[in-house]
Design brief:
The chain is of the alpha/beta class. The protein folds into 3 domains: 26 residues; 236 residues, Alpha/Beta hydrolase fold, catalytic domain (Rossmann fold, 3-Layer(aba) Sandwich), CATH 3.40.50; 254 residues, Divalent-metal-dependent TIM barrel enzymes (TIM Barrel, Alpha-Beta Barrel). Helix content is 38%, strand content 18%. An 8-stranded mixed sheet has the order 1-2-4-3-5-6-7-8, with helices on both faces. Strand 3, helix 2 and strand 4 form a beta-alpha-beta unit. Helix 15 packs across helix 16. It starts with a helix and ends with a helix.
């Protein structure tokens, strides 16, 4: 007869193991986050990661380091900005170091998180520190010792001064010191006294802090940091909302200036050339060329048939990127007329492209429907004829999707270019026409990825979001930095898709001073 005692013992042992394991698992996995992410442990402390919508292919992941990571933080207030960070290609991470007040114990956990993320998860070596309230002590405490690992610091009413908050009596325990001992050694630990390495490394600072904050007073914290940091040669942008205290005002957490700052400093600098289109860079060569040069543009996208601008741009060290032309195709007729030959000849040898919008395609005087693949054979045969002549003169063909034409969708351009199948024939992604035809709710990323092998140009501009299919051009084409559409997020997807080619600013219909619009748009571009 077999004894049942060992079986009962094994069952009891298994129950004991499960009862002790489940709470441990729950502790690691139950932390709520504003967006879907992963909760895990590093160095015995609870940490989290929220990944970007699309990881950069083969590149380290840019990231935002949030503090304080405590029960309930980050909270729902951070959701708005977190969504914009992830859309722009950034991850968000943090680690719970308790009420450490920037102490060496907390800094040790910070070092462990940085090592884990950069060595095992492919995160970039330099992070943007984003501190809310007392997270400022944690972030600045670690940053001062590791300036080479900091891309930037941003704060929402950040605590920057131990003497101001929580006060030396309360903070001393976290440092394993008495209040008197901490006071004697305050310069070793207090952020205002430890800024020099960050200023020397050129780390930019940003903060938004209300002038009625009684918990973390503006004067002893953000203003004191700004005064000392700028005296050391550092750069700091400080926004002071009047009448605001230490509260949940949405302006703190839905601050576009903060998002722009974080995006500009976290995401690696773009390699794209940036040019203006002649829809906004209006005038003759004598006016346009020096204006573009002085404002920092790389060149111009012009109109086919203008032979003076390409020469003047080249003499000024700028580039003539493309010459816009609208053309219709008719079955049975040649694609290359004398007028088109002359326009191609005018830009030969410049490395430029003919920016070709296909208006109508007809057979026996009957137009094909917009986007109809039935017209492809007509277009493809004539495009090959044009491409052969243009290619011999170092001129590429970039198909230009335009609202209301036969070729009005980016997918149309990809389909045609794939069938032509020549390296000198590619496509353009025009943001304003995408919004008009596809709508703001349609994710452009899959199309950008599909277009990438043949993508020659991207054009952007400020725009509104909403029901963009019904909007007029005055809302779909605005100066950069204006309108409610998230252009920074769109450019994050352009970069994440792997596009490194030229980007143009579309200014059609903007009836304002061209220089002022171009300057504002360049300022926005430089923050991307």
């Amino acid at each position: 007869m077999v004894s049942k005692a060992p079986l009962r013992y094994r069952v009891l042992l298994l129950c004991f193991f499960l009862l002790n394991l489940v709470p441990a698992l729950a502790e690691d996995q139950s932390k709520p986050l504003p967006l879907p992410g992963e909760v895990f442990k590093v160095d015995g402390a609870v940490a989290f990661v929220i990944l970007p919508e699309l990881k950069p292919d083969g590149q380290p992941i840019p990231w935002v380091w949030y503090a304080p990571t405590l029960p309930g933080l980050p909270g729902k207030e951070e959701q708005w900005m977190f969504e914009r960070f992830t859309k722009a290609g950034m991850a968000i991470a943090g680690i719970d170091v308790g009420e450490s007040y920037g102490s060496p114990d907390g800094r040790t956990h910070f070092s462990a998180l940085h090592a884990h993320l950069t060595t095992t998860r492919g995160f970039a070596p330099r992070a943007v520190m984003l501190a809310r309230s007392r997270g400022g002590l944690m972030a600045l405490g670690w940053a001062a010792e590791h300036p080479e690992k900091i891309a930037a610091f941003a704060g929402i009413y950040p605590v920057c001064n131990l003497a101001s908050y929580p006060g030396l009596e309360k903070a001393a325990g976290a440092y394993h010191l008495s209040a008197a001992e901490l006071a004697a050694r305050l310069m070793e630990h207090n952020p205002p006294d430890r800024l020099a390495p960050l200023a020397k490394a050129g780390v930019p600072f940003f903060a938004i802090h209300g002038d009625k904050d009684e918990v973390v007073p503006l004067e002893a914290n953000s203003l004191e940091i700004q005064k000392r940091y700028t005296a050391l040669g550092g750069r700091m942008q400080l926004i002071i909302p009047p009448g605001q205290g230490h509260n949940m005002w949405s302006g703190f957490f839905e601050c576009q200036a903060l998002v722009d700052f974080v995006t500009a400093t976290a995401v690696p600098r773009k390699t794209n050339a940036f040019f203006a289109m002649d829809t906004i860079a209006r005038g003759g060569a004598a006016e346009v060329v020096p204006m573009l040069r002085d404002l920092g543009y790389d060149g111009l996208g012009g109109t086919a048939g203008d032979s003076a601008l390409p020469v003047a741009l080249k003499e000024a060290g700028l580039k003539f990127f493309n010459a816009y032309l609208t053309k219709s195709f008719e079955a049975g007729k040649p694609g290359l007329e004398d007028d088109l030959r002359q326009k191609i000849d005018a830009i030969q040898g410049q490395g430029a492209a003919l920016w070709l919008a296909v208006d109508q395609v007809t057979a026996q005087a009957k137009p094909f429907p917009k986007s109809s693949p039935e017209a492809d054979p007509v277009v493809i045969s004539q495009l090959k004829e044009i491409a052969a002549y243009a290619g011999a003169r170092d001129v590429r063909i970039a198909l230009y999707p335009h609202t209301g034409t036969w070729l009005e969708r980016v997918s149309d351009a990809i389909r045609v270019a794939d069938q032509v199948n020549l390296p000198s024939v590619g496509v353009t992604f025009n943001l304003c026409h995408w919004l008009k035809v596809e709508g703001a709710e349609t994710d452009p990323l899959p199309v950008l990825q599909a277009a990438l092998p043949r993508l020659m140009f991207v054009t952007i501009n400020g725009a509104d979001t909403g029901d963009t299919k019904t909007m007029g051009w005055e809302r779909l084409i605005q100066p950069m930095g204006e309108g409610s559409y998230d252009v920074a997020g769109f450019m994050g997807k352009v970069r994440a898709a792997g596009y490194r080619g030229p980007v143009g600013f579309q200014g059609f219909g903007i009836r304002r001073d061209p220089k002022e619009v171009l300057q504002r748009s360049m300022e926005f571009w430089r923050r991307l």
